[in-house]
């Protein structure tokens, strides 16, 4: 059995690399002999890190050749079907799906988070192509509602959960991040993790967040910036940190997704803009607060009955202090994460069932 995996892989984004790891490990657990080929922005690195065959995602001849030999195309997960960060992203990823259908290959959208989709061409492409795939699984209800509004109604659509909930760090991952913890000013003090990204419409939040982090530091918490996209988020972490007067540390290493999970496991609270910073925290039972820059963040927070953080200093501080003191909330996160873990494991079973049916 040969499977092609299409997504935002090979670009040093911890969330998307975690998706790659989670999807492929789930497939291998259920079908040990499955041959997986990844469409990657850095095929050599993908092969080195995961031991998988990889081809460059922009090589059309290799793409046609690989799809021609495949039994299944998996498109996902993540947020590849949106046109807010780039006008080119959605047309590319949906064209891979269209090519697979031209070659009469079954396709699954695998735990996708869909949207925002604003451009008329993007909407038309989604409606035209998505209605021709065999199965769609989504990570949230909001994505399902968006597809229905766009007129996607022919394939079965099931809401499952993000594949990353199935990942667990091992002892080597914890050992790899231990020097980061040891390098903090006081490794015994509780740690607040911070994951930020550059986002022009939110410009100015940096001062409010920095002031809040300084106050929390004064109350006995250590501040650790954890970039999720390397090296882009390091620069944004520095933009926030330059407004701080208290101590902080920025993780400068390019950690693997498993190492990110191990590090986040050591936190007392995660404050994140990146969706997968929040997902990583939830999956490890760590309380989290989200700064919303995209509906996907709101959708995830909504599942846990949380509101996005206010960008007002007093309100931000009050919300974070409430989370830090909420022991019952910690227990609820663990409970909800277990439910999502079970749902996430359905994705691989559903994907492989398409090949069995064939």
Keywords:
2 domains; single chain; 7-stranded parallel sheet; Rossmann fold; alpha/beta; 358 residues
Overall 3D geometry? Answer: globular
**What letter string, H or E per element, gives the SSE order?**
EHEHEHEHEHEHEHEHEHEHEHEHHHH
What fraction of the residues are assigned to beta strands by DSSP?
15-25%
Contiguous runs where pLDDT drops below 50 for at least 5 residues? none
Look at the helices and sheets and give the structural class. alpha/beta
Largest sheet: 7 strands, parallel
- Count of helix runs: 15
Task: Domain count, please report it.
Answer: 2
Describe this structure in words.
The protein is α/β, with parallel strands linked by helices and 358 residues long. The protein has two domains: 2-159, 3-Layer(aba) Sandwich (Rossmann fold), CATH 3.40.50.2000; 171-340, Glycogen Phosphorylase B (Rossmann fold, 3-Layer(aba) Sandwich), CATH 3.40.50. The protein has 15 helices and twelve strands. The termini are close together. The model has no long low-confidence stretch (mean pLDDT 94).
Can I get a quick summary?
This protein is an alpha/beta fold and 358 residues long.
Topology, please?
Elements: E1 2-9, H1 14-30, E2 35-40, H2 43-50, E3 53-56, H3 60-69, E4 72-78, H4 89-102, E5 107-112, H5 120-130, E6 135-138, H6 141-150, E7 156-159, H7 171-182, E8 191-195, H8 205-218, E9 222-225, H9 232-241, E10 249-250, H10 257-265, E11 269-272, H11 275-283, E12 288-290, H12 295-303, H13 313-324, H14 327-344, H15 346-357
Parallel strand pairs: 1-2, 1-4, 2-3, 4-5, 5-6, 6-7, 8-9, 8-11, 9-10, 11-12
